[in-house]
Amino acid sequence: MKFDDDFLYSADPLGTGFAGGPEEVHYGIDVENHLIGFQVGGRADYCLSKAMTAFVDTKVGIYGNHITHRSAIYSANGFAEITDLNSPHLGEQVAIESTKDDVSLVGELRVGMDYRFARCWSGSLGYRAVGISGVALSTNQVPVDFIGALDSLHYVDSNGSLILHGGYAGLEYNY
After folding, report:
1. Per-residue pLDDT at 147 exceeds 70
2. Is residue 44 left, alpha or beta, with left meaning phi > 0 and alpha meaning psi from -120 to 50?
3. What is the 3-state secondary structure (H, E, C) of the chain?
């Protein structure tokens, strides 16, 4: 599974439109989570009639998560540069790439109904919720203090989690 999350903050002191002028400043973060692993699960079906079945399906998995992170402050003139004479990063551009390997957990729950409306055709309606923990989210990478904690831009924060949920419908043909 691949989960990509982006964040862009832009500022223009001369107005509210962004046309690529040299006075505009942008702060962009891109994180990619590449989850590879295994999952186990089960499904319970209850036959309501010869053609209709209600079901509950659940899966849980543990995944290795290879995270890539890019963070940059830039404008039309290029990347921002550290100009603080007391900084050990004097002269460096604020265009940082880093990686991290971590462990993520994924859980899924589905409930729904299947209906066989012809010999080879069936349809399904249901609701699915997928929870993922141990992922890097772009907004979790924003440091509290850019000046005092510039090194923190290199650190990948992977303690984020999310829940994806919603209804679904499917159509199936068996020959």
Report:
1. no
2. beta
3. CEEEEEEEEEECCCCCCCCCCCCCEEEEEEEEEEEEEEEEEEEEEEECCCCEEEEEEEEEEEEEEEEEEEEEEEECCEECECCCCCCCCCCCECEEEEEEEEEEEEEEEEEEEEEECCCCEEEEEEEEEEEEEEECCHHHHCCCCCCCCHHHHHCCCCCEEEEEEEEEEEEEECC
Tokens of 118: 């012809």
Number of domains in the chain: 1
Token pair for 59: 């899966």
What torsion do the CA atoms of 141, 145, 27, 76 make, to the nearest 10 degrees? -150
pLDDT, tens digit, 9 for 90 and up, residues 31-90: 999 999 999 999 999 999 999 999 999 999 999 999 999 999 999 889 988 887 887 778
Under the banding of pLDDT at 50, 70 and 90, the label for residue 148 is: low
Domain region containing 43: 2-173
